Amino acid sequence: MRRICVFCGSNAGRRPAYSAAARRLGQLLAEQRLGLVYGGGKVGLMGAVADAALAAGGQVIGVIPRMLMDLEVGHRGLTTLHVVGSMHERKALMEELSDGFIALPGGFGTFEEFCEILTWAQLGIHRKPCALVNIEGYYDPLIALFDRAVEEGLLKENNRRLVIAGEDADSVLDRLLTMAVPPQAEAKWITPGQV
To answer: Which alpha helices (H) appear in the chain, and where do they start and end?
Structure first.
C-alpha cells in the first residue's frame, strides 16, 4: 500500500476522542510512510488528520470540489490539492489515488462516501480494504444495521465481511495493512431486464 483514503467529518464533534483519533491516524500514516488522501478541508476532523500527518512529515493529498474551495474551507498547506468540479469527481479521484479506505466519525458525507466505496468493493469495481474507526462506539448503530441487513436477507454474509472495524486508529490500520486484498465480495450484477 502506498496511500490510504480517510473519510471524516468537517466538524470536530462533541467528544475530544474523535479529534484525538484523527490526529493519531494522521501521525500513524506518516510514520508508516503511507500517504493520506482525504477531502481537502482544513476544518474539523479533516483538518486534524491532515495537520497531524503533515506535522509528522507525511504526504497529504486533498481532493475538494470547487464549490467548497470557494467557501474557503480548502487546506492550502497540503502536499497536493486537487480542485475538482463535483462531488462525483472527488470520490472517483479519491478511489483512484488510494489503496485502502478508513472512515473516522463524520456525518452524511462520511456515511455516503464510505458506503459508496464499500458498494464498489461489493460490485468488484475495486478490491481495496474498507474500515471503520469505531471510536467510543460511534459506528455501533451502522455496524448493527449491516448485521440486520444480513439477518433480513438483504446483504450476503460474504459481503458483510468486507467491513473492517476497530476501536482505535492503531488497531484499524494494523488490520488494514494485513489485508493486501480484502475478502472477495459476492457481486450481484444487474442485467438489462432485471430492473
So the answer is: 16-31, 44-55, 66-70, 87-97, 108-122, 140-151, 157-160, 169-178
Domains (range + CATH), the chain: 3-177 (3.40.50.450)
How many residues are listed for the chain in this entry? 195
pTM for the model stands at: 0.90
CA–CA separation, 92 and 17 (whole Å): 30
Question: Grid coordinates standing for 69?
Answer: 474551495
* Confidence bin at 69 (pLDDT 50/70/90): confident
pLDDT, tens digit, 9 for 90 and up, residues 13-37: 999 999 999 999 999 999 999 999 9
Is there a contact between 141 and 45 (Cβ–Cβ < 8 Å)? no
List the end-to-end C-alpha distance of the chain, in Å, as a whole number.
Answer: 37
